[in-house]
Amino acid sequence: MIETARLILRPWRDADREPFWAMTCDPRVMEYLPKLTRADSDAAVDRMMALQDAHGHVFWALERKAERDFIGFCGILPPRFPIFEHEIGWRLAHHAWGQGYAREAAEASLAWAWANLSVPAIMAITNLANTRSWGLMERLGMIRCPNEDFDHPEVPEGDPLRPHILYRIQRPQPAIT
Ligand SMILES: CC(C)(COP(=O)(O)OP(=O)(O)OC[C@H]1O[C@@H](n2cnc3c(N)ncnc32)[C@H](O)[C@@H]1OP(=O)(O)O)[C@@H](O)C(=O)NCCC(=O)NCCS
Q1: CB burial readout 16-55, b (16+ within 10 A) else e
Q2: Are 117 and 86 in contact (CB under 8 A)?
């Protein structure tokens, strides 16, 4: 469990399935993401639980400390298809946008990664049209790698969500005194 000033990042629970499905039904949240059925949404929670057990980190469930409510996810996924690097990612319920929660959770996730994973860098991917997502990447100090733009192989050809852009942040170097 990771605690920030306003948030808790924690492993997923069965009780998260319902509020996660509610987010999944919100077209504003899913504008740049593949549409999911209820079964897909539950399967995504199952995958998060399994990855958490196997690796000790995942896109963690995100809870506000004051309200103790589930507001989405943020965290670090282990390397997997199609880019075999650690990935930071986020998805918040619409009512939780515009308050700096995603940034707060992402900064805590990066700090966790530098402290607990021996990786040189963390990457993030999104769709060019998803300005809120790549805006956050830039606020975090991530750098776009335009020569690594790619078509996501799990999105059908011709789908406007298929072209992806990639950002990366390098492990901070200790200051030389
Ligand atoms: C991408 C996403 C997580 C970004 O969320 P966000 O709330 O815009 O991002 P931040 O946490 O950085 O918040 C920034 C906003 O909070 C405001 N803010 C308010 N209080 C703040 C505070 N205490 N600290 C920092 N920012 C604060 C900022 O001014 C900024 O406002 P703006 O949106 O009017 O410019 C969110 O839009 C989302 O979940 N989208 C749908 C899912 C998705 O597309 N995921 C990514 C797939 S690749």
Answers
A1: bbeebbebbeeeebeeeeeebeeeebbebbeebbebbeee
A2: yes
CB atoms within 10 A of CB 141: 12
Nearest 10 degrees: Cα torsion 89, 91, 96, 98: 60
Task: State the closest ligand 1 atom to the C-alpha of 96, by its place in the atom list counted from 1.
Answer: 7
Domain ranges of the chain: 2-170
φ and ψ at 92, to 5 degrees? -120, 150
Mean pLDDT in residue range 105-119: 98
Judge if the beta carbon of residue 6 lies within 6 A of ligand 1. no
Residue 177 CA to ligand 1 center (angstroms) comes to: 36
pTM: 0.96
Spatial separation of the C-alpha atoms in residues 35 and 20, rounded to whole Å: 13
8 A C-beta contact, residue 12 and residue 48: yes
Instruction: For CA atoms 77, 83, 88, 89, give the dihedral sign.
Output: negative
Which residue is closest in CA terms to ligand 1's atom 33? 98
List the CATH code of the domain at 2-170: 3.40.630.30
For residue 82, pLDDT over 90 is answered with no
